[in-house]
């Protein structure tokens, strides 16, 4: 049940995170978004969801495994994002500054959410 609550919280977060780009795209500022922005958005958000689920599951099994899962998932996420960004850049003609801004908007906010959820979960374990 606790995992379901985190997943619902994540879905709400993704909706809130998608509002500014959606407003930009529909109010004449689509040039501030890269082509296939939503592909990047949903890839990074899906990757964050997988990491959060893996780490929370690992923490429920054992606190030691949760720490190892966090480190492994973080390394996996960084490498997957770098490979995705490289392939995306090579396949598409992009304005590199807009790509960097869009990519980091998505990546850093998803990472901040991930850290917030994990720290919140650790705080709950420490209070027991």
Write up this protein:
This protein has helices spanning about 1-25, 35-60, 65-90, 95-125. The chain has about 130 residues and is mainly alpha-helical. The radius of gyration is 16 Å and the shape is globular. The mean pLDDT is about 85.
Can I get a quick summary?
The chain has 128 residues and is mainly α. The protein is 86% helix and 0% strand.
Which features would summarize this protein structure in a list?
single chain; 128 residues; mainly alpha
Structural class of the helix and strand makeup?
A: mainly alpha
Helices and strands, in order, run as: HHHH
Distance between the termini: 18 Å
Major sheet description: none
The number of helices is 4
Residues in helix, %: over 70%
Residues in β-strands, percent? under 5%
Overall body shape: globular
Q: Overall mean pLDDT score?
A: 87
Unreliable stretches covering 5 or more consecutive residues = none
Strand elements, count: 0
- In angstroms, what is the radius of gyration? 16 Å
């Amino acid at each position: 049940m606790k995992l379901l609550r985190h997943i619902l919280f994540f879905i709400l977060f993704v909706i809130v995170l998608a509002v500014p780009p959606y407003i930009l795209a529909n109010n004449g500022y689509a040039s501030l978004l890269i082509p296939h922005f939503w592909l990047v958005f949903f890839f990074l958000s899906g990757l964050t969801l997988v990491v959060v689920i893996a780490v929370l599951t690992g923490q429920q099994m054992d606190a030691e495994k949760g720490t190892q899962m966090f480190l492994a998932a973080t390394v996996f996420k960084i490498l997957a994002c770098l490979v995705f960004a490289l392939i995306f850049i090579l396949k598409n003609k992009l304005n590199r500054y807009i790509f960097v801004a869009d990519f980091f908007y998505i990546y850093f906010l998803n990472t901040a959410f991930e850290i917030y959820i994990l720290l919140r979960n650790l705080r709950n374990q420490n209070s027991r």
